[in-house]
Design goal:
Layout: E1 4-7, H1 8-18, E2 23-26, H2 33-42, E3 49-52, H3 56-68, E4 73-77, H4 79-95, E5 99-105, H5 121-125, E6 137-138, H6 143-160, E7 163-169, H7 170-174, E8 176-179, H8 213-234, E9 237-240, E10 247-250, H9 253-268, E11 273-278, E12 280-282, H10 286-292, E13 298-303, H11 309-317, E14 323-327, H12 336-354
């Protein structure tokens, strides 16, 4: 297999093109600008449409229009830009329209800075906008996984008629790694629900304004049933060195890479530590974490935030074992040495307690 040396931002874009993305709408914001630049150069050559919109709000509404016609469409931004897209994401969910949204996270709140961070977890996993809806959220940890998950995100979006979000961060967007690119999608099934204009078929329309309260309730429960199907079929995670682990780290994305480095160091010293890495942040891999809580003595959650995913870990564990948290917010990137010290300290406390 031929490998290509590629940055994360370029990998998002190339994977989308190979997945059959025909429309990209975006507005510049660091640290994801290379994604839009790549799309501007390569998407038209692949028969697609690139539009640099006048704002983030315009970009997400353009995506709604393109998706309604059946086109595979994508937008991207970074933290504050994603906040501006939230109303549109809620509309996508209400219309039951597919679309892929990339968030290359940066430090916040507010404008923050352009350093890598993970402070958008709540926004992404709780929907972020108004109303009762959920958004599938992928969290890649390597450039290869950026390629694979971006390519797959279009299938998930189409299969369930839902917006799908992919959470990267500034470090992941900029770093380069060798990747194997998938074959280009040659043809897509026609979407029978898509708006195609006047023709011989039946009249079609879309609306998320449902004034009848009982009809609106019915629509909400329909969405709930869909989200349950997504939970059943799309939950993903990775286990690393968990076969004999006594203490488990839980981390995602860039932070999980750092935690892996820490665990490799600790294993050399005989510390039985392992890692659970959520690949889908929603659906969250609650079942494996709950099961793991029955056979390890403690969990340590690492995040580049003040602590957001730790709440989902606590909900999964249900008080079965202690859950510790270590975070570095604001764009500070921790080191494997730092994480190994935290895990070692908690491991020693376990040993003292059991002796």
């Amino acid at each position: 297999m031929n490998k290509v040396f590629m940055s994360g931002n370029h990998a998002f874009a190339e994977a989308a093109i190979r997945a059959g993305c025909k429309c990209y709408f975006g507005y510049p914001i660091t640290p994801q600008n290379e994604l839009g630049e790549y799309m501007a150069e390569h998407l038209p050559a692949a028969g697609g449409v690139f539009v640099q919109s006048e704002s983030e709000t315009a970009a997400i509404n353009m995506l709604i229009g393109a998706s309604a016609t059946g086109a595979r469409a994508m937008t991207s931004s970074s933290s504050p830009g994603i906040s501006l897209k939230q109303e549109g994401i809620s509309f996508l969910a209400g219309f039951e329209l597919p679309g892929v949204i990339i968030n290359v996270m940066r430090g916040g709140p507010g404008l923050g800075n352009i350093a890598p961070a993970q402070g958008d977890y709540f926004q992404a996993t709780r929907g972020g906008g108004h109303g009762d809806y959920r958004t599938p959220v992928f969290a890649p940890a390597t450039v290869q996984e950026i390629v694979d998950l971006t390519h797959n995100a279009f299938d998930v979006a189409d299969n369930y008629r839902t917006p799908v979000m992919i959470l990267g961060d500034g470090m992941m967007g900029q770093m380069k790694e060798p990747v194997v690119l998938p074959e280009k999608v040659k043809a897509q099934k026609e979407k029978e629900w898509a708006l195609k204009g006047r023709g011989n078929g039946p009249s079609r329309y879309m609306a998320s304004l449902i004034l009848d309260t009982l009809e609106m309730e019915k629509h909400n429960w329909k969405l709930v049933r869909k989200y349950k199907e997504i939970e059943k079929n799309e939950t993903r995670y990775e286990e690393y060195c968990m076969d004999d682990a006594e203490i488990a780290a839980v981390a995602y994305g860039t932070t999980a890479r750092i935690a892996k480095g820490a665990i490799k160091r600790l294993r050399k010293d005989g510390i039985r530590a392992g890692l659970i890495r959520p690949i889908t942040l929603w659906p969250f891999p609650t079942a494996i974490i709950r099961e793991t809580a029955k056979r390890v003595k403690k969990m340590v959650v690492f995040e580049m935030s003040t602590g957001q995913m730790v709440e989902d870990v606590n909900l999964a564990v249900l008080g079965e074992i202690p859950v510790q948290f270590h975070g570095r917010p604001g764009g500070v990137v921790p080191t494997p040495v730092e994480f190994s010290r935290i895990i070692y300290r908690e491991y020693e406390m376990i040993k003292k307690k059991s002796s």
